[in-house]
Design goal:
The relative contact order is 0.12. The protein is 39% helix and 13% strand. A hairpin with a 5-residue loop joins strand 3 (42-48) and strand 4. It folds into 2 domains: 2-107, Phosphorylase Kinase, domain 1 (2-Layer Sandwich); 114-309, Transferase(Phosphotransferase) domain 1 (Transferase(Phosphotransferase), domain 1). It is an alpha+beta fold. Helix 5 (129-148) packs antiparallel against helix 8 (213-229), helix 8 runs antiparallel to helix 11 (271-284) and helix 11 (271-284) runs antiparallel to helix 12 (295-309). The model is unreliable at 185-194 (pLDDT under 50).
Length: 310
């Protein structure tokens, strides 16, 4: 891990190494009542350290596939996050190396994920148009930074609404860098990782098996479509033509039917500004990656609209 951090230049911070006893105590031996969320890669627990600070602890699953090293995504995330210094990225505080698959310790982000706020009817906080626009701008800003301003370019490779957390002020914090790629990176490692999430996956990836910066652009386009429509990226209970939000969104834009698919809960949205953001999403969702804008270009759109609205 230290070799890889060193290989990519000076890191912004060195993660603290926690003992397994500290993390057992913080989570009451990883009690089920402490679970914040479960995913394909593992489970995240809420923990309270001895200094009373609240943290989120990721316990990765051990993958049964023989050709996958369960340690690699963990090391990858530590290496990537050690290169990043951005206020809209969830901070990695440290790790524990004593368990079979190492544990990662992050700052605790209070308000769940963008996915929760879009699709969980029990949440009392409704996202206004201005908040959605700001979340889009902050997320795009992180991706633009990763692609062009980080010390070495980084592609996230798994952007989706469950990986965008919201803090106490509903400020976006991008998380989950287990699949991320520092460019250039050892190719044998890239090819052994199963990448991306259905519904957000760059269609070109299915032909090439290569995820690029433009794949992040496509995934961000799906998140934008979610923010605009309130619909899930992929839903098998919807009619066939609506199952893939990306395809349904693009076809609705071609047919000039945007107004019919917008989320009815959007408060105070200027129609022209809604159309502008929808056009950005449509460009991000182009099947040919060369026709998609860069994240630097994308980030300028919501930022400009926010300035006008304020």
């Amino acid at each position: 891990m230290q070799q890889k951090i060193g290989r990519h230049g000076r890191s912004t911070k060195t993660p603290k190494v926690f003992t397994v006893e500290e993390l057992n105590e913080a989570t009451n031996n990883f009690d089920e009542g402490k679970i914040l969320g479960k995913g394909a890669q593992g489970t995240v627990y809420r923990g309270v350290l001895q200094d009373k600070s609240i943290v989120a602890i990721k316990k990765s699953k051990i993958n049964d596939l023989n050709d996958l090293n369960p340690i690699e995504p963990f090391i990858n995330e530590v290496v990537v996050l050690s290169q990043i210094n951005h206020r809209n990225v969830v901070r990695l505080l440290g790790c524990c190396l004593e368990t079979e698959v190492p544990l990662l310790v992050y700052e605790f982000i209070l308000n769940g994920t963008v996915y929760d706020h879009r699709h969980d009817q029990n949440l009392s906080i409704k996202l206004t148009w201005k908040t959605r626009l700001r979340i889009a701008q902050e997320t795009a800003g992180v991706l633009a930074y990763l692609h062009s301003a980080a010390s070495t370019p980084i592609t996230h490779r798994d952007i989706k609404s469950t990986n965008i957390l919201l803090d106490g002020n509903l400020i976006a914090r991008v998380s989950d860098f287990g699949a991320s790629k520092i460019v250039p990176l050892d190719h044998s490692q890239i090819n052994t990782l199963v990448q991306g999430t259905l519904g957000y996956l760059d269609p070109e990836y299915l032909q090439t098996s290569v995820l690029t910066e433009k794949s992040d652009v496509y995934s961000f386009g799906v998140v934008l479509a979610e923010l605009l429509t309130g619909k899930k990226a992929l839903c098998f209970s919807r009619p066939d033509v609506e199952r893939s939000l990306a395809m349904y969104f693009v076809s609705s834009m071609k047919e000039d039917r945007l107004v019919y698919i917008l989320d009815s809960n959007i408060d105070g949205g200027n129609v022209e500004h809604l159309k502008e953001v929808a056009l950005i999403a449509e460009r991000c969702l182009r099947v040919n990656s060369e026709e998609r804008p860069s994240m630097k270009e994308v980030a300028m759109g919501p930022e400009g609209i926010l300035v006008i609205e304020e």
